[in-house]
Amino acid sequence: MLRLFFGFFLLFSLYACSNSESVFDAVQNRPGIANITLVASVNGIGDNSYNDQILAGLFRFNEDSGVPFRLLQPESMDEADSLVQAWLKENADTDSSLLILASSAYAGLAQKLDIRFSGDGNKVLLFEADSAGFPQDVYSFSIDRYGASYLSGAILGINPCMILAAAPGFASLETSIDGFRKGYDVHKTIADTLGVDYLTYNENDETAFNNIEFAYVATFSITNYILDADRPSAIFPLLGGAIKGVRRALIDYPNTGHFMIGMDVDQSGVLPKVPFTLVIDIKGIVIRYLEEWALGKDWPRFRSFGLGDGAASIVFNKNFDDTKEFEARYEKYYDEAVREEARHAKK
């Protein structure tokens, strides 16, 4: 009961405090005392998806280990930079502190990070980076969505499809688009060409991932004016938190016959118009890294996770009208998708 109350208290604090404020201040910056600081993506917490699953992983580790953590939610990249510099100063004399940079957008901050200003033994973990080319004691991983996206495209090859992405220029999004397009084009049974559109064409525009209204308007336009009203079609959204706009549009206009693919966290209970979700087990990855850190295990400088090791997977929605044909195509093309993921990783 105490843990349940504690969890509610933290979640209440998360939304009651200013975005940059710590919601867990039991962290002690002293030598020999383990502590964790999470710098969440800009305005990312509260998306009921990827970012909230990162936080869920930290809660789970805290419950199991008792290691305290602090959550920082910047409102801008400049504020994130200031928070990272403050962490370096606060931990100048510690030796067991971990800084988590939970967004690929922080790669630039990590690249210029001089961990020597922090205490010996401290570490930095960067999420969704695509290489190991960072300073000493800065570790990184990526989740390769190519295989799961390839498999999604192969599954949906019986329907017209449209990819709706946040903005061009993000490597993870372009990888997903390339994978989906390859799987779709190789295994489609219809003559339709895959459509791709963005909420904004400003390259590397992080704000697009939180632009729910743009996603709503784009989905309305796609379902009512672009896709054929007489043929059920799929939207493959690569939008981060802005996916809420797609869901809301499909709820507000339920008679179009079109549907969306869920992303990151199983969407089966959120919307019936989701035949399956491309699930990312970011919670499991967070727990794995933290457990290794607590045991003193060495991390590789860089890791890549994906469909082949279960970090990305497809989960079907039993509440959807009929997923039998989709599930049959999943079984048919799964092994091929794993091979394609491995082939793509070698490029």
Features:
about 350 residues; alpha/beta; Rossmann fold; 2 domains; six-stranded parallel sheet; four-stranded parallel sheet; 10 helices; 13 strands; about 15% strand; disordered N terminus
Give the ordered list of helices and strands.
HEHEHEHEEHEHEHEHEEEHEEH
Beta-strand content estimate? 15-25%
Q: What structural class do helix, strand and pairing data support?
A: alpha/beta
Strand element count: 13
CATH superfamily of the largest domain: Response regulator
Number of helices: 10
Number of domains: 2
CATH fold title of the largest domain: Rossmann fold
Low-pLDDT stretches: 1-19, 21-25
- Straight-line N-to-C gap: 51 Å
Strand order of the largest sheet: 2-1-3-4-5-12
What is the percent of helical residues?
Answer: 25-40%
Global geometry: elongated
Q: Sketch the major β-sheet.
A: 6 strands, parallel
What is the average per-residue confidence, as pLDDT, rounded to a whole number? Answer: 88
Structure description:
The longest helix has 22 residues, at 324-345. The protein folds into two domains: 2-143 and 282-308, Rossmann fold, CATH 3.40.50.2300; 146-275 and 317-345, Response regulator (Rossmann fold, 3-Layer(aba) Sandwich), CATH 3.40.50.2300. It is 39% helix and 16% strand. Helix 8 links the parallel strand 8 and strand 9. Helix 7 packs across helix 8 (243-252). By secondary structure, it is of the alpha/beta class. It has helices at residues 2-16, 50-65, 77-90, 107-111, 146-155, 171-187, 212-226, 243-252, 282-294, 324-345; strands at residues 35-39, 69-72, 97-101, 123-126, 138-143, 161-165, 195-198, 234-238, 259-260, 262-264, 276-280, 302-305, 312-316. It has ten helices and 13 strands. The radius of gyration is 21 Å and the shape is elongated. The strands form three sheets. A six-stranded parallel beta sheet has the order 2-1-3-4-5-12, with helices on one face. It has a four-stranded parallel beta sheet with strand order 7-6-8-9, sandwiched between helices. The chain has a three-stranded mixed beta sheet with strand order 10-11-13, with helices on one face. Residues 1-19 and 21-25 have low confidence and may be disordered.
